[in-house]
Amino acid sequence: MSESEAAQLIFDHSMSRNRVGRVGVELEWFVLPLADPARRADGRELACFTSLLREPLPHGSRISWEPGGQVELSGAPQDSLARCVDAVAADVAVLRSRALAAGLHLLGAGLDGRAPRFTVPLPRYQALRRYYARHGQSGDTLLCNTASVQVNVEAGDGSDGWRGRYRRWLITNALGPVLMAMFANSPVPGAPDGQGTVLSGRQSLRFGTDPFRTGPLPLGGDPRGTWTRFALDAKVVAVRRCGQAPPAPPDGAARTGAAPDPTAGTDPDADPGAVWEPAPSGLSLRQWLRGAGPRAVRSADVFLHLKSLVPPVRACGHLELRMIDAQDGDDWIVPVAVVAALLDDEGTSDAAASLVRAHRLHPTRQYWIDAARRGLGDPELAALVRTVMDLALPGLRRLGVSPGLYGAVARFAEHHTARGRAPAHARRAAFLRPPVPEGVTGS
Question: Is the pLDDT of residue 433 over 90?
Fold first, then answer.
């Protein structure tokens, strides 16, 4: 594959659907044994849980595993916010009941304060682990000890205004730090600079790895071109070779038993005959396409490379918002609703775009880092958070959501946003202890 062919592939794939309205969400949780919530669930327990997940969930959500044994539910995209929330909530209820049947509890939080342990040694995860080791000591914690809510929305079309891809890219990126601060739920006390608790420790960890791969991307111009340049210049994690025996799992994972991946057989990353060899240090996709890599680039390599990119907003046909920490209980509904209101209600979108222009919001990397640290402790950011919530609530009414969905957002706004608080503020006191699920007493 030539560089121009790869660039066209990335450009065409980045925002490919030319529509608005559909909403999806991916939810991650830490999995804790009910009998001993201070202990990590091991591979045997996760395998038992997996055996209970063989029957599909009622609304088609898919289940997969993160490297540290976090479970992820990926909801099927729905034609509206209301349908998305209803479908995913029903699947979450079934997932929780099956976890209980396996003696496990699903905990919603952005960061696990315990020592990381690699539990699910899929080849792609091992490759990421080796890659992150080149960028400091945070890789294992990032992979094994973090959980998020990823909101998926359509990228829009070529028109101007609220349906257009430029508007939707602008709002999600410019207001991304606002959303990160609003839903920060991964506090880390005792910041190295002495400025107190970091409120989104999860996102701070991500920014502390590969600076380029984690973004954010610049605003202005055609976002598809911006994304294409970003992808071409990002470093390659690994070169995948098929038909070879997989490498030995790291750190005794074979002894504890790795949780089988329910998506095995459908995801090329989970191919048991594939080996991910480390890419030459510093090799970008562009350099590989120009002949610097170990072999010619194939289209599958490009797609696997795109999957490894983790800026706050990822363009993958639709837009995937990755800056939001996992939330307590059913509060995952709130960020999904706020994002949908900002993008899919015309009046809210217009007001959000005006807010971005009025405040000249073009967040730099340092702005994101500061927002992850201080969150609502920054008066200017706290004011923006309140304004965005004030825009979203009437937008939800115009979208015709149910009283229950609207009430969930309004309660969050009253309990957290209006008081200048994020979920992290309530979690601070408990953070130094292992996370204990509500209603469960630790040993």
Answer: no
